[in-house]
Automatic annotation (TrEMBL):
<dbReference type="Pfam" id="PF07972">
    <property type="entry name" value="Flavodoxin_NdrI"/>
</dbReference>
<dbReference type="InterPro" id="IPR029039">
    <property type="entry name" value="Flavoprotein-like_sf"/>
</dbReference>
<protein>
    <submittedName>
        <fullName>Flavoprotein NrdI</fullName>
    </submittedName>
</protein>
<dbReference type="GO" id="GO:0010181">
    <property type="term" value="F:FMN binding"/>
</dbReference>
<dbReference type="InterPro" id="IPR004465">
    <property type="entry name" value="RNR_NrdI"/>
</dbReference>
Amino acid sequence: MVIQLLYTSIAGNTKNFIKNFIKFAQNEQSNYQFQAIEISDNTQITNLDSPAFVFVPTYLDGGNGIHSGVQEILTNSLFEFIDDLPDKSKILGIIGSGNKNFNAQYILTARRYAIQWGIPLIDNFELRGVPTDTQRIFKSVMLRLNQFNRNETIKFNPTNAFQCITNSESELLLIDEKNHLVSPIFFSSNINLDPSLLTLIKVEKPDELYSIQVKALTMQHYWFIPKSI
């Protein structure tokens, strides 16, 4: 079975990672044939005929990734390509990359993609990645493919809720420690939490929520699960 790897590469980092990923997959003698497809303004593909994964780096104009607005730059062709697809169900997962020095902005484009289209963000790597990233992300891709082949849904059962209340607004981050999943951060004014089902932990500042989220994604390699899943 052919698996398409959709990507855009501005500085060559993502393209290099894709090349190493395919080489690693070939050495693993996988039953899948991974096909790299670089998306640009000139891409003629209008639909997907096989399962696919999206690899997207982070390039943003302004904002801090927390409350101030951000605007995607340079990778817009990939966004527009996905947005124009009539059927996005074949996209099984997103892999983000970026620079950890940008803190809350790290893999923010990938997180925004996940929320925009309800696609899980299954892993990430910094800059060009290292061999251990390639090995781990290959395992994440294979796990997601196995779920797809068995028609399994991702079950998100939060065990911990991190809440920040400021200026009468409540923001919430949910984590499923058992299944290694983390949610987006969303306003929780309409959500009633049952303390008997999970542990509620309150934090003082919104950036603490983002630090917890990024740590779960980068150090523990939890999957980022959009609210719609």
